[in-house]
Amino acid sequence: MDETAGMPTARTIEDRDPSTGQLLAEIPCASAEEVAAAVARARAAAPAWADLPVDDRCACLERASERLLAAAPELGRLASQEMGKPLATAVGEVEGYARYLHEELAEVKLAVAPTPFESEAADVVLHREPLGVVAAITPWNFPVAMPLQILVPALATGNAVVLKPSEHVPLTGRMLAEVLQAELPDGVLELVEGDGATGADLVAADIDMVGFVGSRATGEAIMRSAATGLKRLVLELGGKDPMLVFADADLPAAARAAVQHSLRNTGQVCCSVERVLVEDAARETFEQLVLEEARQWTFGDPAAEGTRMGPLVSTAQRERVVAQVEDARVRGARILLGGELPEGDGAYYPATVVADAPEDAAMVREETFGPVVCLETFPTEAEGVRRANDTPYGLGANVWTGDADRARRVARALRAGQVGVNRYLGGAQGTPWVGARQSGFGYLGGIEGHRQFTVPKTIATARPGA
Ligand code: NAD
Q1: Residue 270 annotated in active site
Q2: How many CA atoms lie within 13 Å of 104's alpha carbon, on the beta-carbon side?
Q3: Distance from Cα 191 to the centre of ligand 1, integer Å
Q4: Which of 137, 138, 142, 233 has most ligand 1 atoms within 8 Å of CB, for mutation?
Q5: In what order do the strands lie in the sheet with 115-117?
Q6: Contact status, residue 174 vs residue 165, Cβ threshold 8 Å
Q7: What is this structure's pTM?
Q8: Quick check: is 120 catalytic?
Q9: How many whole angstroms separate alpha carbon 234 and alpha carbon 35?
Q10: Same domain for 82 and 227?
Q11: Domain containing 58: what range?
Q12: Per residue in 420-437, pLDDT tens?
C-alpha cells in the first residue's frame, strides 16, 4: 500500500508580501489524491444543488454577497498584502463585486429560463442544465473579482465548483471560499490550494468543465489536458491591447487614458493598454503629454493612504518587465522616464515610458504586465491598423480620433473582442467579457456567457392526437 496516498505533497506555496519580500505564510500544495477527494465531494453535492430552483440558488448567493460586503475590509487587506495593489483599490474590488452580484444573478435567471418552441406535433421546451463539476482556476491580479466571475455564474446555473486560487494570493482565495461556503450546502464549493501543478491535477481530475482566467501559455496547457474526456472550457487569457491615437484626437484626454490604463494595478491588468500607437504628426506633442501624466504615478507602500501604484506581484514578475525594457533599449528604443531598478526591498518598479520600440521588440509582441507606457508611431491609418493587429492577441483595443467615419472604420478593423472609441473599453451590463483570437476561448458575462456553464437540452412532449 502507498503510505503517502492522501498526504499533502512536499511542495509548498511561499506566500510573500511583495512590498517587503516578507514571508506571510507557507502553505502545502494539495496532493493529486486530495484534489480527487475534493472533486468527489463536489460531485456528491452537485445533484441536490442542481435540483434546487434557480431562485433558491440565487438567494444563497445574494446572502453570500452580504457576507462579502461585511468581509470587504479584511479581504481587501489580505489581497493588498499578498499582491501589492493599494489597499483602497483592493477593498473597492470586493465591495464593487458584492454590489454588482444582484444584477449578475438577475441575468443568470434569464439565461437559464426554459424557452418554449412552436411545433404542431409536440410541446417543445429548451432547458439549460448544469454541467456537473466546474474547476475554477484563477490568477492573482484581481484576487477577488477573477474567482467570482467564474464562481457566481457556475454556481448560480447549478454546478458544484472546485476553486484553485493563484499561489500568489492563497490567503485571499481561502477567505473568499470560506465567506461563500457559509451560505452554500456542504461540498457545493470546494477549495484546493496549491501551485500550477495542483491546477494541472485538478484539470486531469473527474471534472466536467474548466473555467480559467490566466496566461495564454497556461490556457494552452489546460486545453491539451482537457482533451481527455472532452471537458468543456472557458479560457480568459492575456492580451497585448493596442491604443491607436490619430493627430486629430483630443490628445490630452488620450494621453491621460494611455497612462492610466498602462499603469493601473502596476500595469498588471489583462486589458491594460500595452501599446500606444501614435500618428507621426502627433508624436512630439503626445510624448510630452504622456510624460506629464506619467510623472504623477509614483510608487509606494500599498497600505499607505493615497498610494497610486504598489509593487509588482513578485520579483520574478519584475524581472520579466526589466528584461523587456532592456531588450527594447538594446534595440534602439528611447527610455523617456523610469526604466531603472529602485533601491530597497520589495518588487517595486517605477512608472516607465518607452518610445520607438521596434516591431520585433519583446515589449511590442509579448504581454508586459508591468508599469510601462510603450509608445510607437505610424504613418497612415492602414499601417496603424496593421501594426495594432500584428500580435496573436485580441482582448481589447481603443481608437482615438476626431473623425467619426474613421472611428467606425478603425473600430471594425481592429481584431479584438472589445473596442473603445475615444474612451477605454467597457460594455454595458449584459455585454460579454470576451477576447478574440488567442486572448480567449469562450467568454464570460452576459446571458450567453452564463450559458456556457450549462448544456442545452430539448424536451419534446407529444401532443395527444397530434
Ligand atoms: P497563470 O497562467 O500563470 O496562472 C493562472 C492560474 O493557473 C494559477 O492559479 C496557476 O496556479 C494555474 N496554473 C498554472 N499552470 C497550470 C497548469 N498547467 N494547469 C492548470 N492550472 C495551472 O497566470 P497569472 O500569472 O496568475 O495571471 C496573469 C495572466 O492572467 C496574464 O496573462 C493576464 O493577462 C491574464 N488575465 C486574463 C484576464 C481576462 O479576463 N482575459 C483577466 C485577468 C488576468
Answers
A1: yes
A2: 27
A3: 17
A4: 137
A5: 115-117, 122-130, 454-462
A6: yes
A7: 0.97
A8: no
A9: 20
A10: yes
A11: 12-237+435-459
A12: 999 999 888 889 999 999
